[in-house]
Amino acid sequence: MVLAELGRKITSALRSLGNATIINEDVLNSLLKEICTALIESDVNIRLVKQLRENVRAVIDFDEMAAGLNKRKIIQSAVFKELVRLIDPQVKAWQPTRGSSNVIMLVGLQGSGKTTTATKLAYFYQRKGWKTCMICADTFRAGAFDQLKQNATKARIPFYGSYTETDPVVIARDGVRKFEDESFEVSNAIEPDQVIYVMDASIGQACEAQASAFKSKVDVSSVIVTKLDGHAKGTPLMCRIGDLGGHTSISVFPIDRYPLKSYSFGTKDPNYERDRSVPARFQRLQEDFEKYGMRRSVEGVLLVHEHNLPHVLLLQLGTFFKLPGGELHPGEEELEGLKRLLSEMLGRTDGVPVGWIPEDCIGNWWRPNFEPPRYPYVPAHVTKPKEHTRLFLIQLPEKTFFAVPSNYKLVAAPLFELFDNARAYGPIISSLPQVLSR
């Protein structure tokens, strides 16, 4: 990716700072020159590059720096904050509302990738537990409905469109009426909750004028940039993404993370498996499946900060790692069941509630049979999966006490370690870095 190349150039510049024996004005000037050159080569507006340089220079004053201060870290921090400021509008990302209708309308020029993006967006929310559908309101481009139909069929997403109707408003209303009758989470097509502008990365610095033109006609509230893997010109789009007015945002983690040292830990009675043997477990699962249907499980992803890096809390039993959670009772609501399971596994023994706040569902895993493996999808040949597990991000309180069963260890594993250690952590835990980066 071209953006990855920009990242390598910036990393190389910071590495040269780390290798310098003496930190002075010459080293700072060389660092800023390398970073600014990399940004300009990636087609970032020169005004923004100049502003970044001036802001860093305003923070770093070697004459007024007290003796003993770590000059490298001060410079690195100043550069990092300015790079973040280029792409972070400091606005909370839009989140769909559970229990009510949510309509997302995509707008943009022809060829910008609206149809493909709509499919990816619908599939993204489908994996997070939403019931999604797509309506093709593009009546002008030849083959628009055929493309949407092909993409939606492949992703197994319901869709609606028309080969004969030429009015996009009529199609939108008819499609909404159709899916409302089937209890889909959509409402009146002419009152979208979110208008997303789909922008082609290849337009470069023309993004500002184009975005302003769309903003003057429709209430654009978010931006999706496509084709970033093939164009260096995608960088200025990232830098100007906040110019639409105060709604747009880039969300990395939708929860607050607190340092690991904010929490205290203790032990409580061991938590043993329900079944005494593997055959007994299979027999119980078979009986439960015949009586209640597919087994439902929920697990919580608890994130903390350690050494300025995100870590996930895992339960360790011997060489086996797992996320806290477990099996729901028949008919039990997911979020309430998750709170119950988290309290049973990590809650205090004095009855004081921890205050778990389940947030987004970030993963769905299915088990075709009563034994491993689990898949992030239902295999095509499986018509009746035996278990469905959903992963939820958990908002932890700023401070609390965890009581860990004495037969388990609670470990904080850095996210960067999980992906490269799938054999040790298993497929679900090792997939968390990729899931959380989306």
Characterise the protein shown here.
The protein is of the alpha/beta class and 438 residues long. It folds into three domains: 2-87, SRP54, nucleotide-binding domain (Four Helix Bundle (Hemerythrin (Met), subunit A), Up-down Bundle), CATH 1.20.120.140; 104-244, P-loop containing nucleotide triphosphate hydrolases (Rossmann fold); 260-436, Nucleoside Triphosphate Pyrophosphohydrolase (Alpha-Beta Complex), CATH 3.90.79. Helix content is 39%, strand content 19%. The protein has 14 helices and 14 strands. It has helices at 2-19, 25-41, 46-59, 71-87, 114-127, 144-155, 168-181, 207-217, 234-239, 278-292, 334-346, 415-418, 422-430, 432-436, and strands at residues 104-107, 134-135, 159-160, 194-200, 222-226, 263-268, 295-306, 309-317, 320-322, 325-327, 357-367, 387-395, 400-405, 409-414. The strands form four sheets. Strands 7, 8, 9, 10, 11, 12 and 14 form a seven-stranded mixed beta sheet that branches. α8 links the parallel β4 (194-200) and β5. α5 (114-127) runs parallel beside α6 (144-155). The longest helix has 18 residues, at 2-19. The relative contact order is 0.10. Residues 183-190 and 242-253 have low confidence and may be disordered.
